[in-house]
Specification:
Strand content: 25-35%
Number of strands: 14
Largest sheet: 5 strands, mixed
Order of helices and strands: EEEEEEEEHHEEEEEEHH
Helix content: 10-25%
């Protein structure tokens, strides 16, 4: 489960003694590794109850965080873990509310919301990988090297707009009005001003303004399939017209979803 940027993550560890009973350590240190490779260290961490250590960390960066608890002295031990923090804007083809409706989860039941949001993001990325382009509109940053003609090719399409274009050290920037980005191909060319040079950082937005209903339905089918499979609510059919998956395409994307995504399936007109 990922957390939202700004959430307070409750980190916890339990120390036990030789009798397997909770017991305080001589000293407890917590080190959190941030996505930018800096660290936050809390030393010492006091126990809430004997042997139980809890620290609430207010997140300030999106990405993968590492956690290391180190107990020294009495009842020495070490424990490591990770947690993820989402970017501010969700990666979602469908809303959480629509996913809950698909799964027949009452809107008033919020106990599984955080877990379900992970399924929504995962299904969205699966659909985008299958289609080969970005559906859920969002911002990307990537470093590009111009070709011999001075043009660059952005990785994510359809491109909506260029936000900033500059060298990694910010010593030079380009006015986005002087650049032209082809929405379909991601090719960027200079219309006026200095030519692009090696190692240029592009921040841009890509994705669809209107998400087709078939893409949304395919995403909902994948969410439902993964959600029910996780809970053992459906069996895996290994043959016949009702099989939920396509051989060679993996189990995560059911046949019905692939049909909605315009795949060339055997026997499908």
């Amino acid at each position: 489960m990922a957390y939202d940027l700004g959430d307070v993550v409750q980190l916890t560890v339990t120390v036990i003694d030789a009798s397997d009973d909770p017991a305080d350590a001589g000293n407890m240190t917590l080190t959190i590794g941030l996505p930018d490779d800096t660290t936050v260290t809390v030393d010492p961490v006091a126990s809430d109850t004997p042997g139980v250590y809890v620290h609430g960390y207010a997140t300030v960066q999106a990405g993968r965080h590492t956690v290391r608890w180190l107990a020294t002295g009495a009842n020495a031990m070490a424990h490591t873990d990770v947690f993820d923090v989402r970017e501010q804007l969700p990666v979602a083809i469908v809303s959480l509310a629509r996913a809950k409706t698909q799964l027949e989860i009452p809107a008033s039941d919020t106990s599984k919301d955080e877990e379900l949001r992970g399924f929504v993001s995962g299904a969205t990325l699966a659909v985008e990988r299958h289609l080969g382009f970005i559906v859920a509109r969002r911002t990307f940053t990537e470093r590009c090297t111009p070709d011999r003609y001075g043009d660059v090719l952005l990785s994510n399409v359809p491109v909506v707009s260029l936000v900033t274009v500059q060298t990694p050290d910010a010593s030079q920037s380009w006015d986005t009005d002087d650049l032209q980005a082809d929405p379909a191909t991601g090719q960027v060319e200079v219309l006026a001003g200095p030519a692009l040079r090696a190692g240029v950082d592009f921040t841009y937005r890509a994705g669809l303004a209107i998400v087709p209903e078939d893409y949304q339905l395919a995403t909902l089918i994948i969410i439902e399939h993964l959600w029910e499979t996780k809970r053992g609510a459906m069996g895996v059919s290994l043959g016949g017209d009702n099989e939920p998956w396509m051989p060679g395409r993996g189990f995560a994307i059911p046949r019905r979803a692939l049909e909605l995504l315009d795949s060339n399936l055997p026997g499908v007109a």
